[in-house]
Structures are given as structure tokens and as C-alpha cells.
Amino acid sequence: MSEADAGRISQLLLEFYEKMSSWEHSVVKQTGLSPAQMHAVELIGHHDGLQMKMLALKMGVTTGTLTVMIDRLEKMGLVARVPHESDRRSFITVLTPEGRHHYEEHHQWHLELTGELMASLTDAETQQFMVSLEKVLERF
Asked: In the sheet that 79-83 helps form, which strands lie side by side, from edge to edge?
């Protein structure tokens, strides 16, 4: 990749991140959660419960940071920790019924945004975009 291409991709990623972040803050603001808290709820909802270690990895945070966040989400009644079936030292994070409601509502917002973003792409371009994102995320 040329330096010019790397610079352009960097610029586009930054602009995309800022627009997504702004959109996310505006949507999440009405829930009383931070975007990071909502993302934790959404990841747990997508995976029907996750071990704390895997959730931290998917969020790109330390387990210590995640523990503080999950403590807060538990106090809010959105998340519960249950012991792992086969690993006594591990916990699985699951959504409470209220957490499930937040997840479903927020997930619907994401589906609508994704539909709007992908509307300008052909089906083939959408598939290639998905494959490209998966490849990039594997290396992250």
C-alpha cells in the first residue's frame, strides 16, 4: 500500500469513526447509558451471554475496566453475572429482561443505520465490505 493510500484510508476511518461516534452518542443519550455501557449490553445480547474475559476482548478493554462497567450495569438491573458451568473461576454475563429490552431497542437502531449506510452499495459490494471488515477485525 502506498503512503498516499494509507493516509487516505486513515482519514476516511477517522471521519467514519467520528460520524459513528456522534450518531451513537445521540441515540444512547436517551437511555441514560454511556456508549460503552450500551455496547457491552449489545455484545452480550448478540452472543446470548459471554464470559467476562471474552467480552473484554471484544470491547478492547481490560478485564478490570470491564468489571467496573459490569458492576454498574448490574446495579442498573441490566446485566447479571452467573457462574460458568465448567469453570468455577469464571462468570458469564447475561442480560436481565430490562437489559434485553435495551438490547433489542438499540439493535433495531443499528439495523436501521446499517440499512441506510449500505443502501448505496450493490449486493456484491455489501458482501465484499462485510468480508473486508471481518478480515480487518481479525487482525485488530
From this structure: 50-51, 91-95, 79-83
Question: What are the residues whose beta carbons fall under 8 Å from the beta carbon of 97, sequence distance 6 or more?
Answer: none
Could you tell me which of 68, 89, 70, 88 has the C-alpha nearest to residue 80? Answer: 70
Listed in sequence order, the residues at least 6 apart from 48 whose beta carbon sits closer than 8 Å to its beta carbon are 94
| Contact between residue 98 and residue 87 where contact means Cβ atoms under 8 Å apart | no
| Closest among 63, 66, 14 to 40, alpha carbons compared | 66
Give the side-chain half-sphere CA count within 13 A for 30.
8
Encode pLDDT of 69-106 as tens digits: 999 999 999 999 888 787 778 888 999 999 999 999 88
Domains belonging to the chain, first-starting first, are 34-139 (1.10.10.10)
Which three-class secondary structure state does DSSP give residue 83?
Answer: strand
Tens digit of each residue's pLDDT (9 = 90 or more) over 34-54: 888 998 999 999 887 788 888
Q: For cell 439495523, what's the residue?
A: 111
pTM score, whole prediction: 0.75
CA proximity to 140, closest of 1, 18, 13: 13
